[in-house]
Amino acid sequence: MSFPRRRKAPNTQKSEPHEIDGENEDDKKRNPKTNLRKDKRWSCMDSCCWFIGCICSIWWFFLFLYNAMPASFPQYVTEAITGPLPDHPGVKLLKEGLKVKHPVVFVPGIVTGGLELWEGHQCAEGLFRKRLWGGSFGELYKRPLCWVEHISLDNETGLDPSGIRLRPVSGLVAADYFAAGYFVWAVLIANLARIGYEEKTMYMAAYDWRLSFQNTEVRDQTLSRIKSNIELMVATNGGKKVVVIPHSMGVLYFLHFMKWVEAPAPVGGGGGLDWCTKHIKAVMNIGAPFLGVPKAVAGLFSMEAKDVAIARAFAPGVLDKDVFGLQTFQHMMRMTRTWDSTMSMIPKGGDTIWGGLDWSPEGDFDCSAKKLKNNDTQTADQSGKGTLGTTKRVNYGRIISFGKDVSDIHSFEIKRVDFQGAVKGNNLINTTKCDAWTEYQEMGIEGVKAVADYKVYTAGSILDLLHYVAPKLMARGDAHFSHGIADNLDDPKYEHHKYWSNPLETKLPNAPDMEIYTMYGVGVPTERAYVYKLTPAAECYIPFQIDASAEGGSENPCLKGGVFSVDGDETVPILSAGFMCAKGWRGTTRFNPSGIRTYIREYDHAPPANLLEGRGTQSGAHVDIMGNFALIEDVIRVAAGATGEDLGGDRVYSDIYKWSEKIKLQL
């Protein structure tokens, strides 16, 4: 189906010169240099599309081979290598007699929900209601600039650009698979179906994950739809309360929802202070970035993460403009900086939570400790006692350090120059050929130098840094999110919606019978801090880059490729996922005045035994954990009526209790 076209009037006049990319043929004759540059640009685009197309073709080929196998073949080979596979959780629990009881609500995280086109520009002709995000991503390599244009939001409002409407896909298919062969919720849905669940007892609370949380209600009334659907599920299932299962950023989104639904209209949902206790049995948070993730800082600052930094080190220029002429990082930075939701995951709580220049809660973490293999056994305990290594302490509190030496020495040896007084100016290398405008073009050479001269940034100064390098982004973010710690939660200012997704600046609902779980993987190296360097000046460049040459060696194995790692699920450090349920909400506190019971369920990561096992059944990785059999079993048991005590209470492998005790927070 394509967009309707206007009926053309009969052509009675001489046709106008044909336009290409905003420039007609007469202009091209008058401007041969411009024409040459555009031809070169499109030639580079063709090369880029060919390269990405080859990668996708190889992926589809192997996927075809895998799907062409008899259904039992991968299981047969796997069992021949590792022995008989255990029953899937749904099959196992069905044999135990478990069946449907509480309706379940899934809340997907950032980027995992599909987005489809409802209105677009001419370059998107023929894509009406086709997925631009999720699925095959075919339009990314067919028409990359058009795709970026449509995936971006308006840089001033954080809402739809003029003439473009992307909307979330609805139903369970919105986030069952992110792309062909890459499951997100599909395995959990299939196992719930084994004990009798179906669409009337399962609901995917899909939303446009690019928007700020409150703007999903302003534009799409998504929060109202979630409220109505939960009320309907409770009413049509004999009054049984729902079990809510948010994943990743969906955890923060549902925190926002619980405050929104209590608040009076028109800002809130008008459900009243007892809505949650009437409608929610449990909230089972998976991979919860309650207190943010340092990875979000690297993404906003330089459009990088560990894997990207390593790839750039091995193949300089391949991801930059040198080869394809597409200014890849600039386009991606411009696009992602229009997504206000990303600012919900900037680390919260400042130095109190994440540590300062010379301390951090996880400073004694031993990165050299050997990981158990998946056929070994380990008994979880509630002591939180970990093994202390002999390696030197890591200054994890220094989330960004300019130079490996700066990340290591004592703070009194660091000479810092305040960057906030530096004069900005449009005096970078030639910016006239920039295809994608980022706010770095407005900083000037002095501004860039001032950022590097400040040397070290902790969680307490990261916000100042982002305000300096991306003022438009942060101006929108400040209207929708907050990252501090409340002094007095009874202060009326905390009724504003920007505080609702920060667990350190809001109260849990008055729902003493409700349960809150945090369920996350451990044993996977997770990004916690970064060593940066200045990028050599070039046209339209991003001036900062992770220094992939920074290595800690045997003395500091936590530093690899410019990234300091800590224990976590590859995306969310344990501190962020576990602290609130270990301490901040444990018992009756000012953040949990009704004493909602909280439980920690950790899943020790074990990689798949072989390739035919896919992404594994014991993975603790941030997305792969959605196929973890132990996690799925916990979810099904609670949905079928079990409590946290029935599951055995906390299950902890990490040092989360010890690290939480080091954080001095008024409770």
From TrEMBL:
Q: Where are the transmembrane segments?
A: 47-66
Q: Which GO terms describe its biological process?
A: triglyceride biosynthetic process
Instruction: Name the keywords, alphabetized.
Output: Acyltransferase, Membrane, Transferase, Transmembrane, Transmembrane helix
Main subcellular location: membrane
Sections of the chain in a coiled coil = none
Reaction catalysis annotation: a glycerophospholipid + a 1,2-diacyl-sn-glycerol = a monoacylglycerophospholipid + a triacyl-sn-glycerol
Gene Ontology terms: cellular component: membrane
Instruction: Write the Enzyme Commission number(s) for this entry.
Output: 2.3.1.158
Q: Which GO terms describe its molecular function?
A: O-acyltransferase activity; phospholipid:diacylglycerol acyltransferase activity
User: How would you describe this protein's topology in the membrane?
Assistant: Single-pass membrane protein
| EC main group | transferase
Show the Pfam families listed in the entry.
LCAT
Localized where? Membrane
Q: Does the keyword Transferase apply?
A: yes
Q: Which family does it belong to?
A: Belongs to the AB hydrolase superfamily. Lipase family.
Protein name, as recorded: phospholipid:diacylglycerol acyltransferase
Q: Which organism is it from?
A: Carya illinoinensis (Pecan)
